[in-house]
């Protein structure tokens, strides 16, 4: 119950955090009590410093101090915009340039590699939040998704059409 309350407070304040299940490692569970001189759980650490347990976090929340001391999670939309603009040509796919993990991704990689244009990839299988969020953000329900200069070009079918019409290279160069 205390851990659940702590997580709810951190989520409510948009805090970027990770957790460790102390029941998964008895040595860590006992050792952390000694290390921190804090006998109970949960324990919140920020930048390696113990902040305290649930009661202290509730006090910090009430005083408004919690918002100033904890790192904020990047909003999903901002994160997606940042990823889309990570490189001039960004491909969101299953797998990566070296190892496609589905037939559609494999086909688009082959087409992209034959253009000679440099591009970056993002493996949507590694991040479920991005995988689901990008579908909504782009209003495009499937993968792969190709972006040029932050704008959605489309998926495999559109890339194939652009290639066949001779328009792919100009699009990848941002000329269209």
UniProtKB/TrEMBL annotation:
Keywords tagged on the record: Iron, Iron-sulfur, Metal-binding
Taxonomic source organism: Tyrannus savana (Fork-tailed flycatcher)
Pfam families noted in UniProt: Glutaredoxin
GO BP annotation list: intracellular iron ion homeostasis
Glutaredoxin domain ranges (all copies): 1-51, 89-153
Protein name: GLRX3 protein
Gene3D superfamilies per record: Glutaredoxin
CDD domains associated with the record: GRX_PICOT_like
Highest taxon, organism lineage: Eukaryota
GO MF term set: iron-sulfur cluster binding; metal ion binding
A cellular component term, taken from the record's GO annotations: cytosol
């Amino acid at each position: 119950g205390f851990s659940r309350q702590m997580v709810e407070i951190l989520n409510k304040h948009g805090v970027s955090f990770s957790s460790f299940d102390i029941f998964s490692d008895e040595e860590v569970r006992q050792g952390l009590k000694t290390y921190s001189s804090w006998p109970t759980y949960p324990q919140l650490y920020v930048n390696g410093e113990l902040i305290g347990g649930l009661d202290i976090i509730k006090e910090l929340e009430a005083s408004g101090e919690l918002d100033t001391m904890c790192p904020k999670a990047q909003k999903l939309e901002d994160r997606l915009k940042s990823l889309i603009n990570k490189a001039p040509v960004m491909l969101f796919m299953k797998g990566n340039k070296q190892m496609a993990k589905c037939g559609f991704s494999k086909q688009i990689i082959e087409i992209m590699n034959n253009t000679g244009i440099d591009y970056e990839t993002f493996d949507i299988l590694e991040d479920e939040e991005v995988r689901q969020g990008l579908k909504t953000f782009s209003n495009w329900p499937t993968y792969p998704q190709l972006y040029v200069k932050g704008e959605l070009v489309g998926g495999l079918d559109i890339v194939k059409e652009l290639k066949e019409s001779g328009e792919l290279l100009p699009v990848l160069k941002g000329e269209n």
